[in-house]
Amino acid sequence: MSTNIVVVGAGQAGAWVARSAREAGFAGTITLLGDESHLPYERPPLSKAGLLGTGEAYSPVFGREDYEKLDIRVELGKRVNAIDRAARQVVCADGSRYPYDRLALATGGQARRPVFPGNDLPGVLTLRRLADAAAIAARMREGGHALVVGGGWIGLEVAAAARTRGMSVTLLEYAERVCARSLPPFMSDYLLRTHVGHGVQVRTQTSLAGVHATDDGRLIATLAASDERIEPADLIVLGVGLAPDIELAAAAGLHVENGIVVDETGATSDPTIFAAGDVACMPLSWRQGRLRLESWANAQNQAIAVGRTMAGDPVSYDDLPWFWSDQYDLNIQMVGLFSPGREQVVRGDPSAHSFSLFQLEGGRIVAAASVNAPRDLKHAKQLIKKAKPVDAVSLADVAIPLDRLPAVAA
Ligand SMILES: Cc1cc2nc3c(=O)[nH]c(=O)nc-3n(C[C@H](O)[C@H](O)[C@H](O)COP(=O)(O)OP(=O)(O)OC[C@H]3O[C@@H](n4cnc5c(N)ncnc54)[C@H](O)[C@@H]3O)c2cc1C
Predict the structure, then answer these.
(1) Do the domains at 4-110+243-310 and 329-404 have one common CATH topology?
(2) Separation of 326 CA from ligand 1 center, angstroms?
(3) Which alpha helices (H) appear in 165-232, and where do they start and end?
(4) How confident is the model at residue 44 (pLDDT cuts 50, 70, 90)?
(5) Are 83 and 103 in contact (CB under 8 A)?
(6) Where are the domains of the chain?
(7) What share of the chain is helix, strand, coil (3-state, %, to 5)?
(8) pTM of the complete model
């Protein structure tokens, strides 16, 4: 049994690795090292209550007393600069070294900041950390015009918050449709209509060429290709994705691709080093190849599996991806992964903002998204896991509860 577990990255995944290792019976020392100054916190509120001002942006994963009870040493403001694999130590920016027998990398990632002239002007912001949310919220309180670059989940949540706070909003999306990476066109179209209905000017197949500031500090954005300028903005939020923090792992010679490559137990190419959360690129039984997921559920559940494995109780992680987003008065959830070309079934009424979309393969549900229909999604998860064949007509019929769908021959 190893005696020292070190976890690099005091975010949601890092906190869960540490806790689950202890709860699985690991009796040695557990040290959680993080470069932020706060105890690990959950990021979803940053783009929701944190921007809307309806609640706390800071939502700690566990209280200080929990770490004390679990005897987890948390060192904040500690940047780890290198892994010395030969000596089995991590090396911090301040020169301190921490020996490990088992090491977990839960370094998450950074919000991407695309390169264009003016990308670092005051008021051109990204959203990943607590301080980012505070800076964006402060600008939103002043009102005016917000330009959101990127029509993924974070961009759409920022646009919704800015509109709700009374700002005028323009959203630029490089692709043909919003959330194109994670949702099928039917859902993208629904989200587009919803945002347009709330007064957001959405421009797809458009990107930014540059930004300059006026004398009074407003931001003038020029669009690529057309040289067109859009209305001066008081806030520009870049929501163009996450760059996983893989440098430590890469410099230490671990196998990295689009993330730190791990096996189903979370072990990297060095069996004493593990990776968890947004940074881990893992195999899942229901999908070919490896996948890196950026979601709250994965940051918790994959990390729990990794913590147990590190404690000597190997667990293969194989959950279905689950994600949610809140925009205006919509709760959007999705489970599984969507792919083009599959049979689709709509249940409920999109115009009433309560419906679900299912994708089927061989008569079985493989992915689902719901809007204000959380019960549908709960049942969809079960139906996907059971891989039970379903009848498409019954699935679309809201009069038939999803747990009483008629049996279909396999
Ligand atoms: C604004 C926002 C809204 C979101 N909303 C949703 C949502 O509605 N639903 C959903 O399912 N998911 C949502 N997510 C995604 C979810 O929050 C992430 O998947 C989750 O936070 C990932 O946790 P993590 O611990 O892997 O990474 P992180 O939370 O990024 O934590 C990694 C930590 O490691 C630290 N670190 C990195 N390198 C080092 C180093 N070398 N030394 C020391 N420390 C280091 C980082 O500073 C950070 O504190 C949202 C994310 C954001 C940013």
Answers:
(1) no
(2) 18
(3) 185-197
(4) very high
(5) yes
(6) 4-110+243-310, 124-240, 329-404
(7) 25, 30, 40
(8) 0.97
Distance CA 329, CA 54 (A): 13
CATH dotted code for 124-240: 3.50.50.60
Cα–Cα distance, 150 to 156 (Å, whole number): 8
Residue 1: which pLDDT band, with cuts at 50, 70 and 90? low
User: Is 220 within 8 Å of 108 (Cβ atoms)?
Assistant: no
Average pLDDT over residues 388-402: 96
Q: How many CB atoms lie within 10 A of CB 151?
A: 29
- Looking at residue 60, the DSSP 8-state letter turns out to be B
Query: pLDDT at position 36, please?
Result: 98
Q: Which residues have any ligand 1 atom within 6 Å of their CB?
A: 8-14, 33-36, 43-44, 46-47, 78-80, 106-109, 127-128, 154, 245, 248, 277-278, 294-297, 299, 323-325
Residue 361 Cα, ligand 1 centroid: separation in angstroms? 32
Average pLDDT value for residue range 284-307: 93
Say how far apart CA 276 and CA 16 lie, in whole Å. 9
What CATH code would you report for 4-110+243-310? 3.50.50.60
Q: Give me the DSSP letters along 341-390.
A: T-EEEEEEEGGGTEEEEEEEETTEEEEEEEES-HHHHHHHHHHHHHT-B-
Q: Per-residue pLDDT tens for 158-190?
A: 999 999 999 999 999 999 999 999 999 999 999
CA–centroid distance, 299 to ligand 1, in Å, is 8
Considering the domain 329-404 in this protein, what is its CATH number? 3.30.390.30
Residue 54 has pLDDT above 90, yes or no: yes
